[in-house]
Amino acid sequence: MAIQGQRIRVLNDVGPRAEGAYVLYLLQQANRAHHNPALEYAIEEANRLGLPVVVCFGLLDGASGFPEANARHYAFLLQGLADAAAGLEKRGIGFVMRKASPAAVAIDLARKAALLVLDRGYLAIQKGWYAEIAEGADTRIVQVEGDVVVPVDTASGKHEHAARTLRPKLHRLWDVFIEPLTARRVKHRADGLKLRSEIDISDPDAVLAGMTLDRSVPPVARFRGGETEARRRLKAFLGEAFAGYGAGRNRPEAGAASHMSPYLHFGQISPVEIALAVRAAREGDAEDRTSYLEEVIVRRELAMNHVHHTARYDSYVQAVPEWARKTLTEHADDPRPHLYSEDDLAAGRTHDRYWNAAQAEMRETGYMHNHLRMYWGKKILEWSPSPEEGFARTLRLNNRYFLDGRDPNSFTNVAWVYGLHDRPWAKRKIFGTVRYQSENSLRKFDAKAYLRTVADLCAAEGRPQDFLG
Known about the structure:
The chain is 46% helix and 7% strand. It is an alpha/beta fold. The protein has three domains: 1-147, HUPs (Rossmann fold), CATH 3.40.50.620; 227-309, Serine Threonine Protein Phosphatase 5, Tetratricopeptide repeat (Alpha Horseshoe), CATH 1.25.40.80; 316-460, Orthogonal Bundle (DNA Cyclobutane Dipyrimidine Photolyase, subunit A, domain 3), CATH 1.10.579. β5 (113-118), α4 and β6 form a beta-alpha-beta unit. The protein starts with 7 loop residues before the first strand and ends in a 9-residue tail after the last helix. Its cofactor is (6R)-5,10-methylene-5,6,7,8-tetrahydrofolate; FAD.
């Protein structure tokens, strides 16, 4: 299938360099060798120009590493890159990986490239890399969107107030974009190119061991990175487990989650591929499909819209709407029955064993069910000395422990706790008119079963916890 024109943006409108030795693609957001529009575009152009394709990746560590990334995040990333590199090699595509910023690697290798192809990402750090590349590379540069179903600018040109305002816009457009992407045949293999790759990604554990990074948050056994593993999990989820997803998705003990969020965050699976698989699934009914597409398209792309149109999406003042900040300020001096330090929160040392279990699931396995994430965040607001400090704590804990932390969804979900994409509710202490979530929400599922599930997950990671004692 053709790549939709709305996915393609020209950043440097010059003709391809006549003496170029290859078409270069900077693998940055879509870290996969298949169902990747940017990669397929690069192959199309290389075939047209009679050139091979080279893919590059810049690995940051030490003081210049990706903000807040630690050993847990890097292990998953490197596993995915090893899988992608193997897939690229099978297709006859060269792969170069160096310890440098993505911009530095792309600018250097672009000196011999006829054309440079980029992914598109919406975080500030990604926008900074792409701007640096556009300034520093003098060849033709084309950016191809492969991280969302409907390109963000196509869906809406403004900051949307809520899912209800973005949803109809996406529904009108998404059938055009939920289309299979055929893998192009590589006509000119890159085997003969002599390119320097500083890193042998075939052994991701060895690469991780050689990096300078925060190792206080270790890798997890629960999830392994890579597009192969992402597709295996998706296939398993869309088997019998998918039937009843619409009714069971808000029950953490029901096993109805797809666990696609870490793979989407690292670009190891395409949201379009997921949507196609959901539509084609034999199990499940219309409600199950509608519920899942709401999560993977509407909610996820609302988050992309938010970070794209909010310069400081990590700032309480900029990310939280004015009405919510006003009401929280009015109630900032309300008595708080429980106050905890950030260390106590991180360790799960609170009076609420269900909250402690949710924190343990995140801390030990890198994941927490969405229903518990909301409860978890609301309680941090309630147990912090001020709404500003609660926001900062929630974001730090989220980004430190979740595999999919530092994601547009993460920044948006944290701001939602404080009123983003929501409306005023009945006034109450501490929260004012910001939505409150009480312990009564735990009655909607088998909370005791959830405690047992988390205990088993923690034990599997070699760090047993007791929540029932």
